[in-house]
Amino acid sequence: MSEKVKFEKREELKQKPDPKNLGFGQHFTDYMLSYDYDSEKGGWHDLKITPYAPIELDPAAQGLHYGQLVFEGLKAYKHNGEVVLFRPDQNFARINQSLDRLEMPQIDEEELLEGLKQLVDIERDWVPEGEGQSLYIRPFVFATEAGLGVHPAHNYKLLIILSPSGSYYGGDSLKPTRIYVEDEYVRAVRGGVGFAKVAGNYAASLLSQSNANEQGYDQVLWLDGVERKYVEEVGSMNIFFVENGKLVTPQLNGSILPGITRKTVIALAKELGYEVEERHISIDELLESYDKGELEEVFGTGTAAVISPVGTLKYEDREITINNNETGPITQRLYDEYTGIQSGKLDDPQGWRVVVPEY
Ligand code: COI
């Protein structure tokens, strides 16, 4: 048995939210995991599970000024009384890649996974069991050193907070979304931080997101930052197209987030016998393919968004409707397989589920 993480009990537990109205990321559990870093005190220290509460932060904390802040998103599910995490090793590996890009200290992936399991064990009553529901897990790390000089900070805090959640877009997770193809602003360029899960990437997306929302669209589809020609990703998802029965998705090029759901869906689709291509896809190619009747389905993938069909794409003065604004058969099949494995309703031959033990 691994060593128990220090645990500070709270006096009173919170009232749990109505499981019928969870929303996404609106409720937080009783406890959080916390870990501090000080380069002068040997690095990471004081790993503990404490009551979920506001934190004290110096107003000059560098993370607030210069954006050293990376995060992750993963989920826990409950099925037949058992609580599982889905591919958590992938999230801890990716957070290290993001930390590396922002010149922040690496974490010990195994140690953090063990801490997370202990936290989720304590909070197992918070893991919702309804269709499409899960416990959304948000690890994040930010610079806490006080000072306004621009340099890599010497002090950081890592927190993991937990939020019982339903579908990201609200309501039915398979309701097709309306996507606006952004042709003015860009999200990332190669050599930048597009591949890393850093807070600034999301801040940079908000103006376009608001513009799209005002025009009646749910999300923005980004084009590449140089030619504004090749499709990259959607605000909170990677994107897939089904052309003539074949799955096509933008190849990872340094400016696209290497999604864990993306990776899982590619593996799953191949196993199910679909051909999958990762390559450059221009927006013109997609419109041509649509005109020829070959663009059969479009869907996004993400931890929060799961597998989410796209019903509308708007680019410049054209708006196209995909598959009659209905969830296509391949999207539906991948959704059923993927969520079946995650939730424990289907077998897990790849060993993607990680059981949370009772400590
Ligand atoms: C996730 O899918 O977990 C994300 O982090 C995307 C979004 C909620 C920011």
From TrEMBL:
Protein keywords: Amino-acid biosynthesis, Aminotransferase, Branched-chain amino acid biosynthesis, Pyridoxal phosphate, Transferase
Gene Ontology BP term (one): L-leucine biosynthetic process
ATP-binding as UniProt keyword: no
EC number per UniProt: 2.6.1.42
Enzyme class: transferase
Co-factor(s): pyridoxal 5'-phosphate
Source taxon at top rank: Bacteria
Spans annotated as Disordered: 1-20
Family statement: Belongs to the class-IV pyridoxal-phosphate-dependent aminotransferase family.
Protein name according to UniProt: Branched-chain-amino-acid aminotransferase
